[in-house]
């Protein structure tokens, strides 16, 4: 685990000294690697549920950004070949711009934060930031920004991260532990306090409608026996086999042992009454993903999502002595849950995990007041605001690790750091575009056979 007993002032000084080991210029220079991108993707696909691979490929084919989301193994490999600061924190591991979103706290307050932790791990902090900035480039394609406008947007995005980190370490340890990530405070915290109220208000309105009751009504129906059941929509949503259903039912009790006592008591009033395999996202397509319907003693219902937790791709390409490798042999469900609780301002109280049939899983509530933002549907001003908010939130998440004070020292007050990250990201975006075209060509050849 990331820990230190050094005072913040010494950590900041140590981070500043790191510039002598890895300069901004080095950090900002992309070094192309020798790899076979299609072979690496195919290796990943061999580990997935075969009938879901075509769905995964279809989703990845939609745009360079979709491909980027689904081919994390390529970037993780490439990042491991680049100069790195060596400053290790708890990272998201997949901090692209669509892995942020809105959700409700236990007090029903709407928050904005990172919302995907399948690839979370301990790693170099700049990997998260680079992944975010490259995603801003790729997902802004619909805006057709002139090069100088894109450059300006990217510089402001990185500056938002840098200034957010400065603000975090101007506060006490306890203040950093309780970040203000509710919608209003997040926007108010932006460096220039710019906001698009229509964007925020629309998202709030949509999220507030996505209650547990609304999810149940949308995804289920009542059968001829009067029992509520999930609606089949193959191949995306299909009822599971009897064997899988029994496994989900049996391990529901194991999952309850990993939540807090009050939540376990709540869940003791529910039993599993139905389950489907439900395919979601882009990068996780092909791994186990289920929805289970819980029925309470009073006849009410609750939907939980059960997702397979696999070894993060970062660990596959890391050095044997790296922190990422140290977490490789623990329960991957536990890793995801622990990292989520560290990185998020407030986490889902129903978050838990278990192991079954040599696979690790984590469990969370499904869609309760959760809403994501599709960056490709935002206009220019909305997109700029959203990118800066995401960068700010990433700095808040990183600041939960005490070693993040070294990041504060490394980035300093220099716009040269911002330029370095932007330069690397622009160069890497071109690599993604090249890999994407290669992927499309491979798909065409495969289809014609």
UniProtKB/TrEMBL annotation:
<protein>
    <recommendedName>
        <fullName>DUF2252 domain-containing protein</fullName>
    </recommendedName>
</protein>
<dbReference type="Pfam" id="PF10009">
    <property type="entry name" value="DUF2252"/>
</dbReference>
<dbReference type="InterPro" id="IPR018721">
    <property type="entry name" value="DUF2252"/>
</dbReference>
